[in-house]
Design goal:
By secondary structure, this protein is α/β, with parallel strands linked by helices. It contains 14 helices and 25 strands. The chain has helices at residues 22-31, 48-59, 87-90, 100-107, 126-134, 166-176, 192-203, 236-248, 264-272, 310-318, 336-341, 373-384, 396-399, 405-411; strands at 2-7, 13-16, 37-42, 63-67, 72-77, 109-113, 138-142, 145-149, 158-160, 182-186, 207-209, 215-219, 229-231, 252-255, 276-279, 284-287, 297-298, 323-327, 347-351, 354-358, 363-364, 367-369, 386-387, 389-393, 416-420. InterPro entries: Enolpyruvate_Tfrase_dom, Enolpyruvate_Tfrase_sf, MurA_subfamily, RNA3'P_cycl/enolpyr_Trfase_a/b, UDP_GlcNAc_COvinyl_MurA.
């Protein structure tokens, strides 16, 4: 186990470059299963989840090589692949469910252990299952595994999602590209990562229209798709994290390759909090001179305020000059972070989906524990704004989503190190 040791009262200043999106690259790696041959992905982030997904694909018969320095991943997919996914790997990685659609489309069967990942609340697979069943698959859960079979192949269907689920949209879209006929996904997720996955699938020979809108239409093609060379879009959540980092530390940070158009609402909230936002080509710059003003936020599916940035706005409000309410509509477990932030002196009251945050002039350093990727990163940033030293245990969560987080913070002027941690944690 590792932890972050953070010296407080830091101000971040400089330029940071963001790698490819975690929420895209893992699904692109899964999509490579739809083509025999070698697919190359560029701007791959150097994060633990990429390592876990590479290991998972290896167990299916692929040969995956990840060059962290070159931000490159090559995925060699053989003519025959396995369809059973190892439990010990799947339990580490929520995105492992992404192989369900490609395996079912290509092999006619798939066995994937119920996935693990972050401790942020329930994330059911009902919509994944309903969509695949509408396309002719038989799906059941047995001994902790999702078992799907379509011995006669999948067929096109009209699928209505009760909620614009990113995971369900991806699973159905990747399964539909080799199905017979046309599949329509109504109330589909609209995230930029969905568009990136669709773009690569089209490059591979799939026929997809409407990605990025609530209605996606996929016309299945015969045979397998073709391997490609694809550049992953920059990670909008990491870009947003650096934007909040600048505001929380009263700093001046340029995100050299961030896409401001993917962060319109978060950047607008930062502007209302008092930050100066400059859109560059490419990238953007965030400067904060004074104590932030409080901002109310409600998390919603894209293009709403991302749930993955909720912890950062709570950290910002915790040192604001006033009070604000943050409403979490997607994952009930996200407020675990708020409980840890109070150990730094934050004044937060949670009630169901709502958190009322009353800003204090200054936080104070203390030992805290990360419960998920974003909570860990936000606790580190809160530690930078605190007086004294902060220790953030369970650093492995942050390593799953951020490339060299501590190193980038040091390059921006912070005093942050990663060190061994033998403390007994009350969650893992």
């Amino acid at each position: 186990m590792e932890r972050f040791r953070i010296a407080g009262e830091a101000r971040l200043d400089g330029t940071v470059e963001v790698a490819g999106a975690k929420n895209s690259v893992l699904k692109l790696m899964a999509a490579a299963l739809l083509a025999e041959g070698t697919t190359t992905l560029r701007q791959v982030p150097g994060i633990l989840d990429v390592t876990f997904m590479a290991q998972l694909l290896d167990t299916l018969g692929c040969s995956v090589k990840v060059d962290a320095e070159g931000r490159l991943a090559t995925i060699a997919v053989p003519g025959t692949i396995g369809h059973q996914c190892d439990y010990d790997l799947v339990r580490k990685l929520r995105a492992s469910i992404s192989v369900l659609g490609p395996l079912l489309a290509r092999c006619g069967q798939a066995e994937v252990a119920l996935p693990g990942g972050d401790n942020i609340g329930s994330r059911g697979l009902n919509m994944h299952v309903a969509g695949l069943e509408a396309m002719g698959a038989k799906v059941h859960i047995e001994h902790g595994f999702v078992i799907a079979e379509a011995p006669q192949g999948l067929h096109g269907a009209e699928v209505w999602l009760d909620f614009p689920s990113v995971g369900a949209t991806e699973t159905i879209m990747m399964a539909a590209v080799l199905a017979k006929g046309t599949t329509v996904i109504e109330n589909a997720a609209r995230e930029p990562e969905i568009q990136d996955i669709a773009t690569m699938l089209v490059e591979m020979g799939a026929q997809i229209d409407g990605a990025g809108s609530p209605r996606i239409e996929i016309t299945g093609v015969s045979g397998l798709l073709n391997p490609v060379d694809h550049v992953v879009i920059p990670d909008r959540i990491v870009s947003g994290s650096w934007a909040f980092a600048a505001a929380i530390t009263k700093g001046d940070v340029t995100v050299a390759n961030g896409h401001a158009e993917h962060l319109e609402l978060p950047l607008d909230k930062l502007h209302k909090a008092g930050a100066e936002i400059t859109v560059l080509n490419p990238g953007f710059r965030v400067r904060m001179h004074d104590r932030p003003k409080p901002v109310d936020v409600v998390t919603l599916p894209y293009p709403g305020f991302a749930t993955d940035l909720q912890a950062f706005v709570i950290a910002l409000n915790a040192i604001s000059d006033g009070a604000a309410m943050v409403t979490e509509n997607l994952f009930e477990g996200r407020f675990t972070f708020a409980q840890e932030l109070t150990r730094l002196g934050a004044q937060i009251q949670t009630d169901g989906h709502h958190a009322v945050v009353r800003g204090v002039p200054r936080l104070s350093g203390a030992p805290v524990v990360a419960s998920d990727i974003r909570a860990g990163a936000a606790l580190v940033l809160a530690g930078l704004a605190a007086e004294g030293e902060t220790l953030v245990s369970a650093a492995h969560h942050v390593h799953r989503g951020y490339t060299d987080f501590a190193g980038n913070l040091r390059r921006l002027g912070a005093d942050v190190v990663v060190e061994p941690d033998d403390a007994e944690l009350y969650w893992s």
